[in-house]
Every structure is written in structure tokens, then in C-alpha cells.
Write the C-alpha cells for this entry.
Amino acid sequence: MSSMLLFLMWVCFTWWKVGFKLNFEPYIDSISGDWLQGPYVYYLYSQYGFGKGEIGQLFIAGFGSSMLFGTIVGSLADKQGRRRACITYCITYILSCITKHSPDYKVLMLGRVLGGIATSLLFSAFESWLVAEHFKRGFDQQWLSMTFSKAIFLGNGLVAIMSGLFGNILVDTLGLGPVSPFDAAACFLAIGMTIIASSWTENYGDFSENKNLLAQFKVAAVAIASDEKIALLGAIQSLFEGSMYTFVFLWTPALSPNGEDIPHGFIFATFMLASMLGSSIASRLMARSSLKVESYMQIVFVTSAASLLLPVVTNFLIVANREKGGGISFSGCIQLLGFCTFESCVGIFWPSIMKMRSQYIPEEARSTIMNFFRIPLNIFVCVVLYNVDAFPITVMFGMCSIFLFVASLLQRRLLVIAESQKPRSHDWTTMKEMEAEPLNA
């Protein structure tokens, strides 16, 4: 027991040290709060006695909340401040973690609603704050690629792996139960909130005009409707992330269809190791100025489609094991290999989509547009989860594979448009400064 406690102390120290040296400590603490929960959400609900259909409804509440409330709250970041939105994320997610202590379905539903709002802030406010701060300090735009790669390598890689191992130790080794990772997540979120509040400066979107929330939505809608590249980027993101979140829900029942005893934390850590490998590959790809992001992402989407098609293939070619319990089956091992390949593609996707967003999305409504992108994503995931009991898991994976293939076709269209247009700046902040020069002269 003493050696295990020493290991836990080493994990926490390494966690903090890596983040401190690279100035990512607030983001690392904040993303840790999300990753610690990932492997055990489905498992915790099942331990409370809920079936797949009821768990699906809880997940729907989270994605529905992200679509309805999260879009509004996330869009307020452009007007009220991105730093303030990041602090709101921490508070909201801490409250969501606290609800996990109750087996009451309504309380858990409230927790999913809070978690949905927090997720919208996580995937918009932090990135918006970073991009605005980057340009405010006069840094080269090309450096963003390196920053995104490091953030994903650490946040979606190293930290996620540590989160999986840490959660596995809390639940299995120390026997603290499936709710313990949520308590640990709340602690890390509190640390991240403290650092953000004490060390980050505030930045906003376009605050030169006193726009209300409705006006912000109108600006975002006009930007999407008037620029095909932004619309394509939103569709691509929705298709990929929709498949990814469906995978997040399905991987546990896919690997243990007969109640097999699988190490959730270690499998999750393996996924994140694959994701970290993908982010490392992405950093090397984006470092090559001759290679466009829009070009290699086509291959990534096709590979993703093929990897999620494996459960369908194994269902036809391999005789399923009908015995209850036991370890992971041979079919499960093959699917696990495909899932790791998909996670590698996820690792490439995140910094690459961030790079494209920094090029195509206008700064004045960045958070608003990014949350607009999440509306079709959340609708898609809600529809899938609502029908989770109506279709076999293989049908769900097959559908995700089709959507990923469609994403590759849209990515091809985005590449064609990008190459047909002359290089030009997509930084609306710079454009507004140029327009204001005669007034300042």
C-alpha cells in the first residue's frame, strides 16, 4: 500500500511538473478533470443498476444540454470574456462531479446537463482564449501549429494516459469505488480554476460594438452561410466528433458484450497512448510547409472509417463467444486494435482541426461559431443514443464508418476550394485593424 501511495504522489508531481514547464498547467488541470471521468461514466451508471437504454438517455441529456444551453453559455465567452468562461467551465464541471455520488436518476440527469454545458466551454473557450492571446502578443501565426500539437500531445495524450492509470489505481487497486475518479477530477478542476483566476489575462471577441447575444448569433450564421470553407469545416467537425462521441459510448459494451471483465482504466490509457502517437505524427505533418492540412486529413478520415468498420467485419467472420464473464475475447482483441487505430486518427484530428479553425474562423465570433458547429454534432449523437436499443452495436459502428467516409469527401472539397483561391489572411482582427488605419492617421 505504501509503494502505491508513493506512485500516486509521483504521478501527481509529474502531472504538475510537465504542465508548469510548458505553461500549460491550467489547461492540463482542466482537461484532467474531463479525462478522469471518461473511462468510468458508463461503468458507474451500470453499477447503479441502469441498463443501456437508461444510460443512453443520460448521455442524451449531456449532449442535448451542450446543444441548447452550452451553445448560449459558450457564445457568451466572446462578449463576457474567455477567461471568465474557462472559470465557469471548472465550476460547472465540479458540480457535475458532485452529482455522481447519488444513485438517483434525476440527480444524475442534472449532472449530465451540467456536464454538457461544461463540455461546450471546454471545446471553445480555451481555444478561443489561446488564439486571441497568441495574436495579442504579436506571435507568428505559424507557431499556433506547434502550440496546438503540444496541447494535444499533453492534454489528449500524456495527461489522458495518466488519468486512465490514476483512475484504474483508485478504483481497482485501492478499491475506492467507481465514483473516486470523479472526486479526483473535481480536485484537479479546482486547482486549474485557481491558476486561471490568478494568472490569466482576459480577452474578448469583437467588443468594439455593443452586440447582444442575438446579434452575435447572426454574425456567426452569416459567416457560415457566406463562406463555404467555414460551412465545410463545421460539417467535417460534426461528422468526425459525432462518430467519436458515439464510439466513446459504444466501446465498453463492444469489448464486453457478455459482461467480460475488462480493465477499463488500462484500456482507456491504451487509447490515449494511441492518441498521443497521433498528435506526435500531426506535429511532424504540420511542420512541413509543403504539406497542407487539408490534404492529409482525407487519408485520416478514410483510415478512421476503416477502423470503426472492424466490429462489423468481426461480427460476420468470427464466431461470437456466448459465455458470460471471463476475459476479453479474440474478437474483442481485434476490435481493440481497430479502436487504437481510430484513437491515433483522433490524435491527428484535434491539432489539425484547430489549425484549420485558426485559418478560417473569424476572431470576432470564434467561440460563437465553434459552438454553432456543435449543434449538428449534438443532434447527431442524441439521435444515435436515443435509438441505441433499437439497433445492434454493429449497425451503429457501420453508420459511424459511413459518416467518416463522407467527412473525407467533404475534406476533399475543402482542399479544392482552398487551392482554387489565392492565399489570403483569414484573421478578421487584422482586417479590422487595416480598415481602422485611415481613421487613426
